[in-house]
Design goal:
211 residues, 8 helices, binds S-adenosylmethionine
Amino acid sequence: MSDRAQGQEVFAGIARRYDTLNRVLSFGQEQAWRRRGARWLPPGKLLDLGSGTGAALPVFGDRVVVALDPVPEMLALNQASVKVVALGEALPFGDESFDSVFSAYVFRNLTSISETLREIHRVLRPGGKAAVIGLGRPKGSFAAAVHRAGTAVVLPLAGAVVGARREYAYLHHSLDKLPPPEELFAGGPMEVEKIWRMGPLGFVYGALLGK
Ligand SMILES: C[S@@+](CC[C@H](N)C(=O)[O-])C[C@H]1O[C@@H](n2cnc3c(N)ncnc32)[C@H](O)[C@@H]1O
């Protein structure tokens, strides 16, 4: 394996199949979940952090979008007019240069959440907002155990069917990687304005963070 983090290797391998896989795994809901986060963001300049293939672009309306991702294979499929190959942990932008930051389905793949949150805080103008959409486990240990048992069976099967076993195994394990969003964002530096749950058993979360 190269010196890329595991998440980046996985996305380089599945770039062309990514949108279809995502649609199937989310029962066609992944865009509605993105939209519920983007609606809270102010107009102006928006950073789509971990933009990937740019699947979220339609939910940004007339905001001016900068799409950032470390994986060129993903960005090559992205229709944004400004695309930047970089990591969330080291944003190549000046202080207070964005009105909003959006990041969907990225946080499980980051090498450092605290560094990325610090960078988001730095590049946002005062009063700017960030919306994070992420996958994890449902709230409550029983629902989480049921969901874990379900994804342990369903995801390897789905992986075998579409010839992407490794990627689906990665997804199953990455769902347990992070604490729930209430804990994840509690340490700042962004202020938690609201957290909500979506999807079956609430395994998808949204978080609105303010500077
Ligand atoms: C599941 S995809 C989500 C893509 C897009 N946000 C969406 O909603 O479809 C995760 C993306 O995070 C990117 N990524 C991985 N590590 C990253 C990092 N350290 N900083 C920023 N993005 C990262 C991957 O390359 C991939 O494009």
